[in-house]
Amino acid sequence: MNSTHREPSSADALRLAVVGVGQRADILRHAIAAGEKVVAAVDPSEEGRAKALELFGSDVALLESHEQLTTANNLDAAFVLTPDWTHARIAIDLLEAGIPVYLEKPLAISITGADETLAAARSTGTALYIGHNFRHSPVVVLMRDIIERGEIGEVKAVWCRHFVGNGADYYFKDWHADRSKTNSLLLQKASHDIDVIHYLSGGYARRVVGMGGLVVYGSIDDRADRTGQRMTEWFSMDNWPPLSNTGLNPVVDVEDLSMLMMELDNGVQASYQQAHFTPDYWRNYTVIGTEGRLENFGDTSGGVVKVWNRRHEYAADGDAEYPIAGEHGGHVDADAATVGEFLLHLRTGAPTQTSPVAARYAVAVGDLAAQSLRNGSVPVDIPPLDPELAHYFEQTTVSSSTPDHHQGERHHP
């Protein structure tokens, strides 16, 4: 192994690289605020490299290929924030060079790519962190706390509805609309929620069924090649109603309406629904236990999680209600926590709440649900991860098991 990784002292600023200077590159500001330094930026486009200078200063090294990083000296880690279909290849190359990797979700666009990436991390002994930041979002932390306190008893069902109100602008005007680059939005977009379902349930899916179709955006003929553009250049809240959108990606073959059902290995049953043409944009979870249920209304600060755990007829107000904390909307709070967790892991080896194993199962569910959806909605069994790989990564992951009297015997996603 060509080890370009160094062991930083506690006084040193970590020397970081970023691969892919797009919409997500802004998360590196959390590392900079923590005193770390971005020393190299990789992007094949002139626009991306110019943005790197704006974000990270004139002394950042500008590179066109991630292969150039594998021979660099004194790197402590690389943030891989490139389009989905490149994740596995880039991560494996960097891991084999001995460079710890923060890899944006999804881990890969297929179960095969996910397993190969985990195997590379294990064989090299190099740190791999998957940016499933939603585990750190205030709404998920709050729901997890309610479950752990036993307020709804033992979890038996989790339902998630995702209203993707900005679906056309976010996913149908660039590469996301091309299944050769995303596989499915049940993988790309839903991987956050699949991971959270596993996290709240304490298990992993063992069987999945998918259903859906391209029911709205497939009928729009106006297409445009947006090479060199960024999403902020075409996004507008005035792009409404959905059929009025123009300039869709030249290839549009992912589904804009999709659903899946899961049976987990601990008996929990779960469902997920995603629509990319709703007027509103948020996600709603319902978690049902043996002694009550919870449901979130809003998924950022200002929202609330309600708990019903007394017997009665319809009641708009919960028997208990908890405000969703946080200083910001969107991913900002979760991004700060996730980047901070990765940096702490680099420095101290501290275990993480995010899990490469859970990230693999999120990919597996999305990948195989898409196969089910496209093949008559037949049920598909999810192959378990190699036990040796699972054991290896469990050593660096915080156990998410809950007290036995609330949750029984569980896995640790």
UniProtKB/TrEMBL annotation:
Keywords noted in UniProt: NAD
Lineage: Bacteria, Bacillati, Actinomycetota, Actinomycetes, Micrococcales
Location of the GFO/IDH/MocA-like oxidoreductase domain: 142-295
Protein name in UniProt: Gfo/Idh/MocA family oxidoreductase
SUPFAM superfamilies given in the database record: Glyceraldehyde-3-phosphate dehydrogenase-like, C-terminal domain, NAD(P)-binding Rossmann-fold domains
Signal peptide: none
All copies of domain Gfo/Idh/MocA-like oxidoreductase N-terminal, residue ranges: 15-132
An annotated Gene Ontology molecular function: nucleotide binding
